[in-house]
Every structure is written in structure tokens, then in C-alpha cells.
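Figure 2 data, in text form.
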Amino acid sequence: MARLTPAVVRTLDILELFLDADGPITAPEVVRRTGVPRTTAHELLSTLVARDYLQKDDGGGFRLGVRLLHLGNAYSARFDMLAAANEAARSLSAKTDETVSVALREGADVFYLAKVEPRDTLRLPSSIGQRLPANVTGLGKVLLAYVSPTTLRELFPDPDALPRMTERSIRSLDALEQELEGVRETGVAFEREESTPGVWCVAAPVRDSSGAVVAAISLSVPSARFSERADNDWAELVRAAGDDLSSSLGYAAP
């Protein structure tokens, strides 16, 4: 286990005092209840006030600040997205009888938020709560397509050794950037056996009320069955699902 940072632990100890507080908490009370040295406590309290995690009232007491409300709303919104993602995945899977996933980006990985598998024959390495390298999945390509070039380079510091899951995985940043340009032009990403042999995938973006791409939805199909439809037919199905999920998150297309 990685070493914990004492200053962060002390800061969290202070914030957690407010979980059962009936009113404002004074600096001396913080010192008494946490055991944090007085000078350190004042420095941490001042920092929390400056960052709006705490508010200081006229009597010298401290209350929770508005920044924590913002964090709480962001956490709540993630669960709202979870419900919407599950509904969208079930709907698209019912239309196609194929595996549907919804994922978020966390750093250079995708985090699987929802997944529906109607068939027993398709075995994928992904599962709800799991992370996979973004560059090897259709979901990840969609999410990477909408980050800045600077962020993309920071996510992959070694441009010639991107993570690989199969022989078809994209290994260089140059090749990935070319593919991401195509994703931005077409609004969909294809993955052909780059994360799982014998499985092809098509994915589309999901936008929030501000228009930002916050998630992606994908359809995973055995390669033999994928050829039963034109690529554009699969793409239109996933685009429509992405649009529906975006609408449920408050996005109104221009």
C-alpha cells in the first residue's frame, strides 16, 4: 500500500468533523478533536477557507463551504448517469441482441459504467467497474478524440509504446492521432480485434448538458456477425443510442 500523505489525512480528518456537527466548529475544537497541532490546524483551516471548502463566520466558527456542494452534485450526477446508461444499454442491446457497454474516461483508461450481455457466446475482457487501456477500445477512442492534443500527449508519455492487448492494438501515438481525427469527422470509432480477438466494436460519444463528451456507448459484435450489416448500419445504431443517452443527460443538439 502506498504511503499516506499526513497533510492530506489531517485535512480529511478536519472535514469529517462536520459529518455529525450541529453547528459551526471552532479552531480550538478542531485541535482538541483531531490532535492536529494548533499552527498546522490554522494553516489547514485557512487553506480550506481559501478554496471554499469551508466558510468562516463572524464568530470565528467554521462551516462547510460551497465547494463541497459542487463535489456532491458531481458525485450525484454520476449516479444519474449510471441509471441513464443502464437504460440506454438495455435498449440498444434489445434492438440488436448484441453486447452494449457505456464507459467513462479515467486518465488513459476507460472505466466501464454499464454493460448488457444478451448472448452467452461472447466473452469480453471488460466488466462493470473494470478499467482497460483507452487506446485499444472503441469507447476509449471516442473519449480520447475529444481531449486536447496536450492532454493526449500527457496521457501517453512514451509515444511509441502504447498499451497493447492484441496484435492489432494501436501501438504508436501517431497512429492513434490519425484514427482520432477520423473519429471526430465521423462521430464514431471502430475497433477491430484490438482488445479481444474475434470481436469488433463501434462506439459513439455521449454529451452532457454543456455539450462536453462525458462518456461513450459501444456495441460489441463477433467479427463474423459484424459483416452481416454494413459498417454504417452499425454506426447509425450506436450514434442514435448515444444521442438518446445524451438527451437524457440534458444535451440539446444544435
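Caption note: The first strand starts at residue 54 and ends at 56.
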